[in-house]
Amino acid sequence: MKKTHEEITAYLMSVLQSSRYGLTIADIVRKTGISRNTVGKYLTILCTLGQVEMHVVGPAQVYNLSNRIPINKVWLERMPLAYVLISSEGVIRDVNENFFQLFSSPENILIGKKMTESGIDVLQKISEMPDYLLALNGKMGKKTEFDEVEAEGATYIIWTYPVVLYDGSYGVISTLACQNPG
Known about the structure:
With 182 residues, the protein is an alpha+beta fold. The protein folds into two domains: 5-65, Winged helix-like DNA-binding domain superfamily/Winged helix DNA-binding domain (Arc Repressor Mutant, subunit A, Orthogonal Bundle); 69-180, PAS domain (Beta-Lactamase). Helices cover 36% and strands 28% of the residues. Strand 4 and strand 5 form a beta hairpin.
């Protein structure tokens, strides 16, 4: 009996989930019995969707499940908290209106700047946080759900996660809530 698209996808995802260090296409073919061409096609699609990541290790391409959260523009438009969207190079790609209200900073001053060059103390502190550094590499390192950061006379609750951006590139999103304005 021929498997459906959903069945093949679920099977490949479960095989990848069972592997701690990732698998090559040849490994997946051996474990699943699915043809090399089909495995390659599905892995390409899953990589494009941000559900799987491919890393080159020597001559091999190794596939792992992604820890990144897929982000789209509709999701961002509905985000109730202030956020900063950062590229994998640490460059600010987007901030929302709530962010502007929190920091009274015009958009054109921030977009395209590195977090460390933004002139906003809390962004500098986020760029030094271990969870931010892990997120830049697509990893989640949360020991707790959030971090507390004191900056500019206020305490901020910050959530930081690795993401796949709406254009397929990798990055980080940090959402901020001001706990006690200064």
